[in-house]
Specification:
By secondary structure, the protein is an alpha/beta fold. It has six helices and five strands, in the order E-E-E-H-E-H-E-H-H-H-H. A hairpin with a 4-residue loop joins strand 1 and strand 2. Helix 3 packs across helix 5.
Amino acid sequence: MERSVTNEWDKIIIGIDPGTNVMGYGLIGVKKKQPHMIAMGVLKLDKFESHYLRLSRIYQRVLSLVEQYLPDEMAIEAPFFGKNVQSMLKLGRAQGVAIAAALAREVPIVEYEPRKIKMAITGSGSASKEQVREMLRRLLNIPKENLLPELDATDALGAALCHFYESQRPTVEKGCKSWKEFIAKNPGKLISGS
């Protein structure tokens, strides 16, 4: 897909849920400040015995997604800290090669902790993956039959939507001592009742 096909979007965000057994990805397009799902899927890696071959497949798939959809930004889920150090190292490597693939095409990257993504989507940082999936289905009007059995896909879509929400928040200028000063310095940043 060339950018001419994706020109209908004001912005495209790719979300990645890195994993060494299953990597999830999701893409949202933003049009008139409204998010819409473009695609989501998973890359199954458990058929490859070599950890290095899995990393190679992650890199290739993320790079192909970036080249196909030409996203403006990438949101990636940060690894959570568990007790198994080897698992953490493998997950960190998976995240690293996904980031490297995006950087190879100069796509800006933002990292979000799983709790932050859950909070942005459901309002609760301790929500289950199933609750995130259901809320995404409702928020993005995804037909039930289009959902995948692997929750990694909706986790990735959640990262992309979380980034969309975060990018819509007004930024606060450093050094402003009052609302009056902020408004004076940022006349175009205030949102009217629309």
